[in-house]
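User: Teach me something about this protein's shape.
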Amino acid sequence: MSYKTKFDFRGQSSCNNIVRHKLVPWLNRFRQKEDGAVVAFSLFLIILFLVMAGLGIDTMRHEMQRTRLASVADAASLAGAAAANNDAAKEAVREYFAKNGMADQLDAFGPDDVQITLNTSKVTVNTSLTVDTYLLGLSGVHTLSAAATATAEKRIPKLEIALVLDVSGSMAGDKLADLKVAAKQFVTTILDSADPGDAIISIVPFSFGVTPSDNLFNALNVAETHNYSTCIVFQESEFDNTAISPTQQYAQQIYTSRYDVSGNFQTLNSSWRSCYTDDYFRVLPYSISETDLHAKIDSLEADGNTSGHLGIKWAAGLLDPAFQPVVTQLIADGDVDAGLTNVPSEYNELATQKVVVMMGDGKNTSSYYFNDPNNLLDTSIAESHAIPDYRGPESDLWRVEYTTDVFDYAYRIRNPSRTSNDPSKCSSSRWECVYTTEDKTAYFLHDPDDSRYRDIDNSEWMTEAEFAAIPATLDGYQSHEQLSWENAWGQMTPDYYESITGIDDAFDDYSYQSRIDGSDKNTRMESSCNATKEKKIIIYTIGFEITAGGTAETYLRNCATTESNYYRASTDGNSDADDLDISSVFGSIASSIQNLRLTQ
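Assistant: First, the predicted structure itself:
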């Protein structure tokens, strides 16, 4: 609110004439009489006091009128800023002034005073008033005037939100159940606060890793070495920026498990899997559907270790405009609503607010990798794998393809309508058996220490010569292939490999030498959080039933945009004096995000 006051001295010439021709001669005569000296001084003081009183009274009246005008102008501009279009905004301002009996004080709108768009509005109100004076009129000041300007600006940006949820094994039970309730309430609150399509939410579950959907994986440039899973590997330097660019090539994560409880071949279903392939672990990108988002949250299950650095990295990537070509492909694939073009928006797009909400329930823990000394992504290095390692071609696992006749049914000779599913009938001359040909696969694991081959199906060892003779000795033989290590690890664990061959190098490489521990992940998480905040993406973090002042809390707190953007949460809100129940925390964050959408 700005204003200025003017003094109007209309009639000043007439007043001067009165003072010069009447008051001054009388005062001169009075002054010549000695007994009038005190009276003259007293009269002077009386006139001075009247002028001062007039100034105070009229100024106070003027200020009261000006303050009321300022209040009406401020409120009217806010009412106008909430209107749907320019005409409605102007009418709202006029009605507000009219209801307050100040219609005459509203100046005409200028060409740029009212600007209403889809996501922003700006209304400027110019006013003026004139107040007649009382006692100041004795001094020739008959009016006081003021001009005031009030501007209200409202920006309602679109929202792009990445909801990053810890689904590691420690979330099992009541914690995951409570999280589902809270996260669904959050989704509903955000979507209800926005026009359809103006709030876009991605859900990023994380445990051992983050699993992109199939189409999301296909839209990226990944050096694909197997078809077991879709997890990708980020180099340490890639956590210093937010982008996951479709023009950059990424390495594919090996799919295996450190070990399995059963210890059997092809049983990679334990909690130690390097990448979870289940649908409930996959990223749900760019959804505007409450139904789909709720269904995704309801499907979540808890398992595995904690990798918060990958959660925040994927969240940042989903909000970075480098992902726009990926979204275009996802729209073409039918995974994303066709109306979500130009998503994610550019960072300088003022009409969009980007937000990450990250919930973790514990500190980062180890994940496991195989070393790649020849670097599959460095095309300047020949893929000779001269250095012994467990990546690349020529693993110790062989696959043999063959066909075999499988019993289908038997029928009675001379009475084919009489059939049987009993294969023992085939030994009888009275029955004829029908067979179908089926494709079969067998696996053989080579022990490089003694050159033997383990027939995995039959749990038997073969000599090198016997294995070489398979094309001639195996009925229905079709082909054989030496698998790459990337494909071999999709069939067995390093622990199983050691149990058969007695060689522990692979298990040691995967479990110890090349693993990324919690400390490494903390460093990468910190880098990713800092890079995200540098892009003015707002980050909220939640520590769900974590130790106060512990490692997990330290990194979650530091990741948040501000200290007030970090929340402690529990299932019941009573485990710590500073905790809130998880639903209250998500509700508070939703309210904070809604407040971000109104700037004035």
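Now, about its shape. The longest helix spans residues 37-81. The longest strand covers residues 431-447. If you'd like, I can walk through any region in more detail.
User: That's plenty for now, thanks!
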